[in-house]
């Protein structure tokens, strides 16, 4: 008899890879509950429940007497949302897997080496503090009532539709790629030497699916990342190499980026101080004990070529951002003028 999983969301960067692995390789019975956006990316065997997860009465009616081996939450960002899930699925699932975030780990970091035991605290990003609050609620329910929670903490995970960057505008990565292609200077936060980890979504799916239905995962938290660590200078240089262009890097302090970005609505306090400007190396020993198959199959130089090839064939992903392009030019011009005035 097949194991049965329910995904809340199910069509995002991370969850799509997991759904495909379960349905195509591991032979699970997969259900996806969402409003129907991007349902075309799912395998034909996936069962779809069209519903707004916030409409609890409707969800309960559509689920009926179904029970699940794993309920997988990918769009729970605030405590009220996981409290809703608890009401919906307590007694209906053998495991509830909550997708938290590695950005929840202590900022500033006491050590560059991150384990699941690293303190959770992030004064710079509300997103991360909300994730911490969600974890605390779920673990309280596990300790007091035995609610079968597993917490996963992804770091920077990407797929063929995304090129991961440190500094970009509201329309995503494409304008930075365009600047590279045009030979324009590209802003990198700090001096570019801080350490970062990028994980291909297919590799993440190996770790995640290995935790599904795994008794050793109940009541535990696991970070799921690649074992490859790069500096931001190396990340940007790898992207430029894949494009076949020379990187024209322009380093700007994170403090300056925070100040210069505020009036344009760029939250570099959260995304940089609260995340990408902090050197991290993830120790995945705990995950590999629970999931021996976990490994890095797609290095960043491989993954970024896949992404750039895919994006080049899909113009709808090439979202230009003239406002961000102008902002970059202004930041660089201001710093160059300051240098001349010394």
Considering the chains and any ligands shown, give keywords for the structure:
17% strand, single chain, Rossmann fold, alpha/beta, 342 residues, globular, UDP-galactose 4-epimerase, domain 1, 14 strands, 41% helix, three-stranded mixed sheet, seven-stranded parallel sheet
CATH A-level architecture of the largest domain: 3-Layer(aba) Sandwich
Average pLDDT, all residues: 96
How would you describe the shape? globular
| CATH homologous superfamily heading of the largest domain | NAD(P)-binding Rossmann-like Domain
Write up what this structure looks like.
- The strands form four sheets. The protein has a seven-stranded parallel β-sheet with strand order 3-2-1-4-5-7-11, sandwiched between helices. Strands 8-10-12 form a three-stranded mixed β-sheet.
- The chain has twelve helices and 14 strands.
- The protein has two domains: 4-158 and 199-224, 3-Layer(aba) Sandwich (Rossmann fold), CATH 3.40.50; 174-197 and 228-280 and 300-334, UDP-galactose 4-epimerase, domain 1 (Alpha-Beta Complex).
- It is of the alpha/beta class.
- It has helices at 13-26, 56-63, 79-89, 126-145, 174-181, 201-211, 232-243, 254-262, 268-276, 285-290, 300-312, 322-340, and strands at residues 4-8, 29-34, 47-50, 70-73, 96-99, 113-114, 149-154, 156-158, 186-189, 195-200, 220-224, 229-231, 249-252, 281-282.
- Helix 3 (79-89) packs parallel to helix 4, helix 7 crosses helix 11 (300-312) and helix 8 packs antiparallel against helix 9.
- Helices cover 41% and strands 17% of the residues.
- Helix 3 links the parallel strand 4 (70-73) and strand 5.
């Amino acid at each position: 008899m097949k194991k049965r999983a329910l995904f809340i969301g199910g069509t995002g960067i991370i969850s799509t890879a997991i759904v495909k692995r379960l349905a195509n390789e591991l032979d699970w019975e997969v259900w996806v509950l969402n409003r129907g956006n991007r349902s075309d990316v799912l395998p034909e065997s996936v069962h779809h429940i069209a519903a707004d997860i916030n409409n609890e009465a409707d969800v309960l009616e559509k689920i009926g007497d179904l029970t699940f081996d794993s309920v997988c939450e990918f769009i729970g960002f605030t405590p009220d949302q996981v409290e809703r899930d608890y009401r919906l699925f307590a007694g209906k699932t053998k495991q509830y897997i909550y997708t938290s975030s590695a950005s929840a780990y202590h900022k500033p970091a006491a050590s560059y080496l991150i384990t699941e035991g690293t303190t959770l605290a992030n004064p710079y990003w509300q997103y991360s503090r909300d994730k911490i609050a969600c974890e605390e609620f779920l673990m309280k329910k596990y300790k007091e009532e035995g609610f079968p929670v597993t917490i996963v903490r992804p770091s920077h995970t990407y797929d063929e539709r995304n090129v991961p960057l440190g500094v970009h505008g509201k329309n995503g990565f494409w304008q930075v790629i365009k600047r590279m292609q045009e030979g324009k200077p590209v802003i990198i936060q700090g001096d570019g030497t801080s350490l970062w980890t990028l994980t291909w979504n297919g590799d993440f799916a190996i770790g995640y699916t290995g935790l599904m239905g795994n008794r050793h995962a109940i009541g535990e938290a696991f970070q799921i990342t690649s074992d490859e660590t790069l500096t931001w200078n190396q990340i940007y240089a790898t992207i430029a190499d894949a494009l076949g262009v020379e990187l024209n890097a322009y380093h700007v302090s994170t403090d300056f980026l925070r100040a210069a970005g505020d009036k344009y609505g760029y939250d570099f306090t959260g995304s940089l101080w609260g995340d990408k400007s902090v050197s991290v190396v993830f120790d995945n020993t705990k995950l590999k004990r629970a999931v021996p198959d976990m490994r890095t199959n797609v290095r960043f130089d491989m993954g970024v070529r896949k992404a750039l090839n895919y994006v080049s064939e899909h113009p709808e992903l090439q979202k230009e951002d003239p406002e961000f392009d102008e902002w970059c030019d202004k930041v660089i011009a201001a710093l160059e003028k300051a240098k001349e005035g010394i």
